[in-house]
Amino acid sequence: MKLDRRLNEILSHITGQSFADVGCDHGKLAVKAIECGCVNKVIATDISVPSLDKTIRLADSLDLSQNIICRVGDGLSVVKNGEVDTVVIAGLGGDEIAKILQNAKAEGKEFHRFVLSPNTHAERVRAEAIVQGLGFVRDYLILSDRKFYSIIVLEKEAKKKIPNQKQFEFGMEYAECEDFRVWANNELSRLATLIKNTKNNEQLKIRLQQIKDAYEDNKCE
Ligand SMILES: C[S@@+](CC[C@H](N)C(=O)[O-])C[C@H]1O[C@@H](n2cnc3c(N)ncnc32)[C@H](O)[C@@H]1O
């Protein structure tokens, strides 16, 4: 199974013998993780029956249904407390991921490690991590297939670093992250054009300045 850069990066952060892939959809991450011997059990979940069916069919076709256990349900409601070593939630919005973490906490569930990759509003995931007392192991941006994704790895036991305002907005590692530099460069050009073509552009100017400040902190040349 060939994975794109984003899924490979996520795979590289999975530790232990098992993980839950919440919102598994196509099921490629689960299959690759078993094939490479990274883990021996995956609980693949999805809120949508047609989405979960893709994973079920893929696992069946590769004779991996013993190792990939498929469950339909919302977030971590179908995973027991501590049932897996790592929880992966990728390809959902930051609000949805934060809600899944909140609900799991309300159900009294705890997991050793989370690998989260929100496709929007990563700052809402950071906010929830702080509320839950989870420590940041990694938090950076990657470019994969011409899109940017946040990768946030959290552990209860990790040292608690409270992000400053820019880290909260752009990721804990924004100042050392090469792909953040690429993202900021693109975003600065896009905003500069937008500002030229927009009359009431005060908010855009503020946003441009925030990104410029963060870009100037970045040490990757
Ligand atoms: C864009 S796909 C991401 C697939 C894969 N995780 C990835 O990153 O490539 C999002 C999947 O999450 C599922 N999903 C959305 N909200 C969910 C929730 N609350 N609980 C479980 N699955 C959810 C959707 O049905 C969909 O299959």
Question: Can you put this structure into words, describing what you see?
Answer:
It is a single chain. By secondary structure, the chain is of the alpha/beta class. The protein has two domains: 5-172, 3-Layer(aba) Sandwich (Rossmann fold), CATH 3.40.50; 180-217, no CATH class. Helix content is 42%, strand content 20%. A seven-stranded mixed sheet has the order 3-2-1-4-5-7-6, with helices on both faces. S-adenosylmethionine is lined by residues 22-25, 45-48, 51, 74-75, 90-92, 96, 100.
Using brief descriptors, characterize the structure shown.
seven-stranded mixed sheet, 221 residues, 2 domains, binds S-adenosylmethionine
What layout of secondary structure does this protein have?
Elements: H1 5-12, E1 18-22, H2 28-35, E2 41-46, H3 49-61, E3 68-72, E4 86-90, H4 94-106, E5 113-117, H5 122-131, E6 135-144, E7 147-155, H6 165-170, H7 178-196, H8 202-217
Parallel strand pairs: 1-2, 1-4, 2-3, 4-5
Antiparallel strand pairs: 5-7, 6-7
The chain binds S-adenosylmethionine.
S-adenosylmethionine binds next to strand 2 and helix 4.
Q: Overall pLDDT, averaged? A: 97
The proportion of strand residues reads: 15-25%
Radius of gyration: 19 Å
CATH architecture verdict of the largest domain: 3-Layer(aba) Sandwich
Give the gist of this structure.
The chain is of the alpha/beta class. It has eight helices and seven strands, in the order αβαβαββαβαββααα.
